[in-house]
Amino acid sequence: MNTSVRGTAAPATERDVAGAVRTLIDRLDGELRHPDLSPPLRGLAVRGVTLATGWSIDTWRERVDGWYAAAEKPGGHTDTGEWVKRLRKLRSFLATAGRESRHLDADAAADPQARALFGEEGQDVVTTAIDWLTAAGPPDTGPAAAAVVVTDLHKRYGDVTAVDGVSLTIPTGRIFGLLGPNSAGKTTLLECVEGIRTPDSGEVTVLGLRHATSARDIRTRTGIQLQQTGFYDLLTLRETLDLYASFYPRPVDVDALMTRLNIRDKAKTLVKDLSGGIHQRLSLGVALVNDPELVFLDEPTTGLDPQARRVIWDVVRTLRDDGRTVVLTTHYMDEAEQLCDTVAIMTAGRIRVQGSPAGLIARHVGDSVVELAPAAGFDAAAARALPGVRGCVTQGDRFVLRSDDPAALLRTILALPDAPVEARIRRGTLEDVFLAIAETGEPA
Ligand SMILES: Nc1ncnc2c1ncn2[C@@H]1O[C@H](COP(=O)(O)OP(=O)(O)OP(=O)(O)O)[C@@H](O)[C@H]1O
Ligand SMILES: [Mg+2]
Questions:
Q1: Which residue puts its alpha carbon closest to atom 12 of ligand 1?
Q2: Ligand 1, atom 26: nearest CA belongs to which residue?
Q3: Do 151 and 167 touch, CB atoms closer than 8 A?
Q4: Where in the chain are all domains bearing CATH 3.30.70?
Q5: Could you tell me which residue ranges the ABC transporter domain spans (predicted)?
């Protein structure tokens, strides 16, 4: 990984650099959100950032995480709040950047255009900023920065062990995704953390507080969307939100909340007459009505149409960009890959792997895999026996093969006497990681 910085950083006062980085981030933000900007151009902008700095998107992600933690540290920079906001914005942009930039990999013409978008000026600004910010000290990832800390948590229902010794730290200001097959224990774990279920053993702290002694404080500062929620059938959507808002000392503006969730036109509809998707958005609204610092969302997008899912993604990203922490569960791996800063995959009550989606893909699957629809008689054992194969996962009628050299493996496969029905190289995904872990219950 190239972590050297090109260009020479001119000595500058902190304020000059801060201003310059602000300008750059504002520009990026403007470019990336512009309604006229087509997806390829957005990708170009992303590519421009990597070219202008000589850093890969992954390096950027790591560095921004470091700056962010340093800026957040008490006694850090003078205008910490402002910095943290900007770094969050940049980090959120970088979270989706990898995926977008991949689309451009094959497009040789992209580079000159990208260079034109982010030329010398961006390079100098970012270089100086990096020098200044990296001098701010090592990132602080200690318990003070954690929104949730779980230690050795166990929960059984009769003979069923739902959570079997989970330890977990969820940092503040991130989107954390809890993934796993049905019955893995996700909802049980969340409910123990939320304080609505009592664990058999283990410790939970939320925002540095314990449920036993600070239940009311935790309830005021957190928001909960349950996997299934019942509301009063004969209240309207708006009356429901007003009712929940009345429980809290500092509720948000209910009209603004309905606008954010795109449900304002249903304000006067009775709960019993709401469609499933709007009911789902109402329950998210209820979770946000107290303006929480930490939000738990149990499958917030299940059953939603593709457009509605994106509304929820925007809401979740905005929460994170505002410095809040979101803990969610989802069965949509594409959603987790795009939305979450960190994911943990749980099977049978235990967390098997944890990390950034990109990191997990790189570690457990590889950037590229070979996917093949085998010819009759070619089984998983034969696939595993091929030279260079480091793992094989069955996905329906297909095998997904992991290898250090996918191109060589594909050539070997195509030269087999019984050629496969179909074979191709494709990107590794979080779904591959998930399926590999769900199949074996162990890291792939
Ligand atoms: N109230 C309960 N009483 C008895 N068993 C329960 C209860 N709640 C959950 N379980 C069991 O505990 C295990 C974990 O369930 P949990 O709901 O936590 O899983 P999950 O990962 O959220 O699954 P899903 O993806 O289907 O929502 C399952 O075997 C489930 O049947
Ligand atoms: Mg569940």
A1: 162
A2: 182
A3: yes
A4: 368-427
A5: 148-373
Q: Is 374 exposed, middle or buried (0-12, 13-18, 19+ CB in 10 A)?
A: buried
Express each pLDDT in 311-346 by its tens digit: 999 999 999 988 899 999 999 999 999 999 999 999
Ligand 1 centre to CA of 85 (Å) is 37
Query: What are the tens digits of pLDDT across the range 41-96?
Result: 555 555 555 555 555 656 666 666 665 555 555 544 444 455 555 555 665 555 55
3-state helix, strand, coil in the chain (%, to 5): 50, 20, 30
Q: Which residues line ligand 1 (CB under 6 A)?
A: 157, 160, 162, 180, 182-188, 227
Judged by its nearest atom, the ligand closest to the C-alpha of residue 192 is: 1
Residues 6 or more apart whose CB falls under 8 angstroms from that of 333 comprise: 179, 429, 430, 431, 434
Of ligand 1's atoms, which has the minimum distance to the CA of residue 180? 21
Closest protein CA for atom 25 of ligand 1: 182
Token look-up 């709007």 returns 278
Which listed ligand is nearest to 160 at the C-alpha? 1
Look up residue 124 and give its two tokens. Answer: 């100098």
> In ligand 1, which atom is closest to the CA atom of 185?
18
Query: Tokens 């800390």 map to which residue?
Result: 149
Q: Does domain 143-357 have CATH number 3.40.50.300?
A: yes
Ligand 1, atom 29, lies closest to the CA of 183
Tell me if 56 sits within 8 A of 114, measured CB to CB: no
